[in-house]
Every structure is written in C-alpha cells, then in structure tokens.
Design brief:
Layout lengths: L19 H52 L5 H9 L6 H26 L1 H4 L3 H34 L3 H20 L4 E11 L7 H13 L4 E4 L2 E3 L5 E4 L2 E4 L2 E3 L3 E6 L2 H8 L5 H7 L3 E12 L17
Antiparallel strand pairs: 1-7, 1-8, 2-3, 2-7, 4-5, 5-6
Amino acid sequence: MSDNDTTPLKPVDHQAQPLPNQSAAAEPAERDAPAAQSPATQAPATQAAATQAAATQAAETATAETAPSAEGPQLTGRQRLVAGLWPPRFSRAQLIVALLLFVLGLGLAIQVRSTSDNSALRGARQEDLVRILDELDDRTARLEDEKQRLEDQRTELETSSDQAEEARKQTQEKERQLGILAGTVAAEGPGITLTIDDGAGAVESDMLLDAIQELRAAGAEAIQVNGARVVADSYFSGGDGDIEVDGKKITAPYRFKVIGKPQDLEPALNIPGGVVQSLEKEQATATVARSQKIVVDALRPVERPDYARSSSR
C-alpha cells in the first residue's frame, strides 16, 4: 500500500448505542425506585382512606338517627307483637283444623262427664250392686202387680152381674187411694222411720228433698216430716237450721214417717253415694228403723181447683 491510498478513519460515537451491561443495570434500578419510595408515599394515602371511612360512618349514623323522626315514632316490642297478631289471618286449612279440634274437645268433655256421673256405681261393692239390682227387680214386680190388679178390675166390671154396684165400690176404693196420695186422708201400714240429727246445722233443704225423692223412687206411698204431710206439690225452702216445708217451719231432728215396703225403702237410703252418706259428709247422722205399722196422720186441706173440672159424664 502506498502513502497516497490511505483511507480516513470514522469517529466512534459512544453515546449512540449503550453497552448491553449498562441497559440491563438501568432497568432494575428504575423498578426499584418506586419500591424504595412506597413507604414514604403510603402513609398519607392510609390516613386519607381512614378519614374518608370515618366521614362515611358519621353520615350513616346521622341518617339512621334522623330516619325515625321522618317516618314517625318508633314502635315498642309489645306494639309490634299486637300489630303482628291482630287482625288475625287464618287460612282455610287452619279453620278446618280448629273446627276438628273443637269437636274432639267437646266429645272428650261429654265422655268425661258421663264417666263422672257413673263414678258412684263404679266404686260400689259387689253386695251394694246386688242390692241395687234387687231393688230394681222389686220395683218392676210392683208395677207388674199394679198392672195385674187393674186388669182384674176391668175383668170384674165386664163380667159382674151388677156392674153399677161394682163400679161404685171401685170408685170408693180409688177415692181413698187418691186421698192418701193427695194427703187429705190419714194412712197406716208398714214402712220405715228416718231420723236425721243435725247438731252442726249444716243440713240444707235440698238434702231433705233428695231424701224424699229417693223414698218416692223406692215406692213410698205416704210421707210425713215433723208433722208436715209431703205430697206431689210439696216444696222445701230455707237452710242453716231454718227449713220450711210448704211454708211450715221444721227444726232438727228431722223425723220422716214413710209408708211402703221396708225391704225397698231402707236399701234406697243406704246405697253408695246416697242420702245417708251425703248426710254423714255434713257431720249429720241418719238412722233408719223398720216397722210393721207406721201412722201418717198429718193432713192437707182439700183444695178445689179454680178452672179444672171432671170430664166424665
């Protein structure tokens, strides 16, 4: 090569293209710069967020406090309960179930009542039940005898040669029987005497009336209490030792004179839960004595009816 053929040299630009090692080192430095500055910048941001949350909570509290005053007074728990229960809201199924429960309860009440009514006989002893059955049999026999007697009277009237005389005799006999029942004539016959001693004054008029009803059911034909004749329309009133029969005052001891079959009258008073036991619960004593001759001589005046007249010709 000659001196005249020399090629000029190009200047090297070091800033045009950075070195590879320099660009790789610059990128991590840029990424680390925000991380290095975050602790200092996060504190103001956290304080700002806390301030905004406190302001929001205060606004909600103020809204909640002012809401009831705008809507009206706040209801109490009892008022909310009443508002929820009234007016009642029933569905058709609930009404049907309520009706079925009512019918079931009514049936149970009736069953319990009927069971309690028969509790006296359920607790009775065997001999007491036998005695009650015997009394019913005797009552049935008396009714059969009365039926037979009336049939015999009819036969006599139909076959008698002197029907007028026979009819007159039967009429007189019937008049005496009706007089005994009405209390207008005296009567005597077998029966019992019931004496009730009431030292405590606890016997009421309804207890004496119960005794009269038991005796009548057992077949009593004539009854007298302390000189007062007891008939179908007699009544008892008063109490606490001041008892009246048809307006006539009677005092203890109460003495019943009863004409009837003694074998029926006495057991009727001594049945379980009967008159004697009821009086003993009231601290009173009842004594029953049988007799073959009881005289009932207290009489009632004959009262002529104001409007009723005999229809026989």
